[in-house]
């Protein structure tokens, strides 16, 4: 069974940083790309970032230059490092891959 579990969310002040973690199991991690999505309160789900099996990355324009996605194939884990956070980054962040999606972790950016 494919499982993805996010952690690392929380409350942070504007300009602060957080690291989100997506721990996975149930599939050959190194062979799959993984995605981060977010769902702001009252808004639609939006794509944030992708990391491919070869380590290549893509970012939404809204986070480019502030967020960094990475992967550790030995730990079957993907990370999303978020810097210079803004109130509009507040959302439930979830990871998606191998046909499954985690339940998400809440990020709130507020003074």
Written account of the structure:
The structure is a single chain. The chain is mostly beta strands and 111 residues long. Helices cover 0% and strands 51% of the residues. It has no helices and 11 strands. The chain has strands at residues 3-7, 10-12, 18-25, 34-39, 46-51, 57-59, 67-72, 77-82, 91-97, 100-101, 105-109. Strands 2, 4, 5, 6, 9, 10 and 11 form a 7-stranded mixed beta sheet that branches. β9 (91-97) and β10 form a beta hairpin. The protein is globular. The chain starts with a strand and ends with a strand. The mean pLDDT is 97.
Give the SSE map.
Elements: E1 3-7, E2 10-12, E3 18-25, E4 34-39, E5 46-51, E6 57-59, E7 67-72, E8 77-82, E9 91-97, E10 100-101, E11 105-109
Parallel strand pairs: 2-11
Antiparallel strand pairs: 1-3, 3-8, 4-5, 4-9, 5-6, 7-8, 9-10, 9-11
Give the strand content.
over 45%
Give the termini distance in whole angstroms.
40 Å
Number of strands: 11
Q: Tell me the overall shape.
A: globular
Largest sheet composition = 7 strands, mixed
Low-confidence stretches: none
Structure summary:
This protein has strands at 3-7, 10-12, 18-25, 34-39, 46-51, 57-59, 67-72, 77-82, 91-97, 100-101, 105-109. It has 111 residues and is mostly beta strands.
What distinguishing features does this structure have?
111 residues; mainly beta; 11 strands; 51% strand
């Amino acid at each position: 069974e494919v499982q993805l579990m996010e952690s690392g969310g929380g409350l942070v002040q504007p300009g602060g940083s957080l690291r989100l973690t997506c721990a996975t199991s149930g599939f050959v991690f190194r062979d799959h790309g993984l995605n981060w999505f977010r769902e702001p309160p009252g808004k639609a789900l939006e794509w944030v970032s992708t990391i491919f099996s070869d380590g290549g990355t893509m970012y939404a324009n809204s986070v480019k230059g502030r967020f960094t996605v990475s992967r550790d194939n030995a730990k079957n884990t993907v990370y999303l490092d978020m810097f210079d956070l803004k109130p509009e980054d507040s959302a439930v962040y979830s990871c998606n891959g191998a046909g499954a999606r985690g339940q998400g972790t809440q990020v709130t950016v507020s003074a």
